[in-house]
Amino acid sequence: MLAFITRRLLLLIFVLFGVSVLLFGILMTFSPERRAATYVTSPQQAKDIPKIIKQFGLDDPFYIQYFRWMKEVLKGNMGWSLVASRPVGEAFWNYFPVTLEMNLFAAPIVIIFGIWLGTLSGIHRDTWIDHTTRILAIVGWSLPTFLFALVLLMIFYGYFQLFSPGVLSDQLTMFIIDNPETFTRFTGMYTIDGILNGRFDITLNALAHLVLPVSTYVIVVVALNMRVMRSGMIEELSKDYVMTAQAKGADKKTIYIKHARRNALLPVVTVAGQLVALSMEGSIAVEVVYNRHGIGWWLAESAVQLDMPVLMCICLFMGVVFVITNLTLDILYAYIDPRIRLN
Amino acid sequence: MAKLLETVDLVTNFYTYEGVVKALNKVSLVVDHGSTFGLVGESGCGKSVTVRSIMRIVQEPGRIEGGKVIVYLDERDKQAGIDLLQQSETYMESLRGDRISMIFQEPNAALNPTLSIGDQVSESFLFHQKKEMCTKIYEDLCAPECQLFYPIKKIQQAVYGMASNNPYAVSLKIMNKVPILKRWQKRLKKEAKKRAIDIIDKLGIPNPAQVVEQYPHNLSGGMKQRIVIAIALACNPVLLIADEATSNLDVTIQAQILELLRRLKEEVISSILLITHDLGVVAETCDRVGVMYAGNLCEVADVKELFGNPLHPYTRALLDAVPKFSVEKELKSIEGNVPNLVTPPPGCRFHPRCPRVMGVCPQTFPEMKEVKKDHMVACYLY
User: Going by CATH, does the domain composed of A86-336 fall within 1.10.3720.10?
Assistant: First the structure.
């Protein structure tokens, strides 16, 4: 087990190398002038562009620039983020908790809800329960996220003044900025920090801000999970071992839960794992529409402004997330299915 | 001999997108106490559907639409039959695996790949012998030699005392939902596993204690089939239905399994309903044989009578299609194909392929007639 994990983590180095070379290469297709222009704010400075190119070596060969970047990264310096106007490393830890907080609420709901709905409609195949869940799921899946988010925002915030966008209400944000000594930011996630600091009003306020983004994300994504669970359930229920269980005298509940569901879960684990990994970069549309300054929002802003160090950082981060997710998935597989052995 | 199982005009249809598949068309057969009944026929003739209808485990989109399945289980009153098609699902659950059990065709698929062998075998005991096991554990707990920390012993005694009165009591059901309290079942599961080891041992599997910890993929096909048989035999059934139990095994293992079934029939079970397409197996193991064609039973006779004096043209054709060492001629086959059961031929379903077809055959369906003593045939020739 330990050997397996170590081997997989060693693989991480190669993955990160590959990802960074690839992305660095893509970014190099922009001309040096283009990349230098990022640092220019006024027309007067435009004449400095050749100087900037010279100073930072932007017209050096690809591998020299890449190794220069890598040397700095290995020293722990990820660069300077223009969007956040602070070092990338520091900014990352500022934005990441916002995304993580949403995922902490959304991922369990997506997984549990998807498995539950999928099991339900798989068992009651071709009945009204099945049709209803399937239709709703497909509607959710095919809705464009940004549009759905806007509609929800319009209905709940626009008409009912409920669930305002953002991460925390302005008053509370000001309060935290003004009183850094009474409110310590342990995790950066207000729901958890609120409890740790004994400020439950902050927790509740942060939760209220999470309702819409989490619902949007869940409704859009749950369909995939549900469909996989449903088809898995239907497939498993038609297998011979289900009939053996029936012939043994097993009741329906035992057959569904003990026999079929465990086998049907395998593909769901794959899908759910990928969903969780993907959502770590933050659902861009959700974060932009609800004005939550998380990884997704940061990524969108940086891509528009060609904030190269940020793009590199987020890609490396996603590499790490995917390798670790796959590692976790493999361990989970071995736990669920005895036919799969690690090593 | 006294009857054990009787089906009367059993009709089962499958509602598929292509149309209604009339899989069983009034199948009536009788299995006696202590006999081995063989059901033979080509693939797709409705053998499996017959026994699944008897067990009421026909899969979707199949429906049992008529007839009776009567079992005579009462020891004292052999005439008192119960029509299984009229019983509740709960009654069927208590019957399946306890009094009537079944072995399936494909040992590789018949076991759940993610549950251990021990789990799967002991399930039978947990379904049908819960009360008995609880009583036994209660007695063990009350025995003076029971070495257990006093309060725990007291609690367990109380719980198992309750469970031995009624293992399905509401209070126990609630307890099973509570995370720590549901541990009371640990002893019960241990007892069930012990019984599982016993039954596996009885079937001649080496190292039963080790086998119960393993998973289906660790075992060979023959071993798996023995486990499937162990599951079926766990609660000493009166009737064992073997649905092509040996078809997918190689010949030596097949012989072992048949030998095992014969031995078990003498020792434990009363009757076997054996489904096969292998006439050799029938000749070797069965007392009585029924021949099926396209959802109909066309001939029923004692095994010697059937092989010596086949009456139905289909039975004859089937016997002619068996390779023999003494004959060196080209092997005969039956002309034509098995009919599509969505649109079966009118009248006798065999008439389009029958060498002795008459004018009446396509018009009405021939009834089963007792031509000789214990020899029934459904054909207008007799």
Answer: yes
